[in-house]
Amino acid sequence: MPKLIGAALLALALAAASPTSATATASTSADTSTTAAFTTATQSDQIPGRYIVTLKDAATQADATATVNAAVTQAYTMGARVRHVYRHALHGYAASMSASAAAAIAGDPLVQSVQPERRVRALAQTVPTGVDRVEADLSPTAAIDGKDTRVNVDVAVIDTGVDANHPDLNVYKAGAKNCWFPQLPVLDMHGHGTHVAGIVGALDNNTGVVGVAPGARIWPVQVLNPLGMGTDADVICGIDYVTQHADQIDVVNMSLGGGGSDDGKCGTANNDAMHKAICASVAAGVTYVVAAANDHADAKNTTPAAYDEVITVSALADFDGKSGGLGKASCRTDRDDTFADFSNYGADIDLIAPGVCIRSTFRNGGYSVLSGTSMAAPHVAGGAALYKATHPGASPAAVKAALIAAGGTDWLWPSEDGDGTKEPLLRLRGF
Length: 431
What we know:
Blueprint: E1 2-4, E2 37-38, E3 46-55, H1 61-77, E4 81-86, E5 92-96, H2 99-106, E6 111-121, H3 129-133, E7 154-159, E8 177-178, H4 192-201, E9 217-222, E10 229-231, H5 232-244, E11 251-254, E12 256-259, H6 273-283, E13 287-291, E14 302-303, E15 311-317, E16 338-339, E17 351-354, E18 358-361, E19 367-370, H7 373-390, H8 396-406
Parallel strand pairs: 1-6, 2-6, 7-9, 7-11, 8-9, 11-13, 13-15, 15-17
Antiparallel strand pairs: 1-12, 3-5, 3-6, 4-5, 6-10, 12-14, 15-16, 18-19
Helix pairs in contact: 4-7, 5-6, 7-8
């Protein structure tokens, strides 16, 4: 079940929680002929009676469109209730149906896989020292000087939604998409998505806070409910929407996650539809930045953090915006300038960025202080946005390489880091 990876989980009150990430991995049979892999819902994060159907790749887009339409029609005739239709990052659909109907659909030679829908939610802890620490205030592109000159870049926040009327954000309202409840406009009743958006691009207007890429256009893509929870089918809907607009959207932040692993083949070997969708979206030119999760465990067992195609970010505890470890702890008891004691680690981590006691925008036009790798990831998403603003033709791989190459090592290690690698710390003064 994908979860938010950063803020205090707002279960009615704004009380901090620390749920562990789901560990669902599909158990599949090999697709060696015309029979699709079919997985039954037996794990706790899987939702009985709800499935994601992935179709085999077609020779042309026209063939794909016809195949999707025919497959959806077939699903309806079998009593399925189709919730999402995927046409861009993935060809297929998500639907509620009986196990027997799902098994029958899996026998269609045009179907690649039928997998149970899984729950997703925030990977939460309890939030601008971060902007200072990553040197965004020294970036000529960010040009942070109290004057509202905006970075010309588009960033999608796949999350709980974004407060479209927050006075400190440049929200692109026409780009809003609600995959959690399509009949409603995007409304962030949780606060996590708005907080993430502010770290990416809060306005440089002498009010509230300033983001890493001030004034970046924020596309709110809501895939999680007011409790910060959702399903991978809804997340795929968000990825599909981003891919549809890949000619406009430069960067995506995903501070959410659930169980799973990287098969090294874009989800085709382990029938991971979300992985396949992200690979297609990255191939379309969109850079994805994701949070490592907050279980203080190896990120290889959390997706999308484990995927090689994304930029995965762990969290640094920094209380004064400076190196040296002299900052006094504020909202948490972490040691200054060290690996956050909740952050995931491992070979899949690409960068580390501030993720403890980060102040940013919040729902209902407010501000809040939150902690988590959810807060670390949007610092990097903002950095990717700065790079794309001056290198509009850069591929996701080039963006990733540039951020890693510019990273610094001026933080205390190993501290709470659970592996033998010191990740580069995001550093943006040259961007």
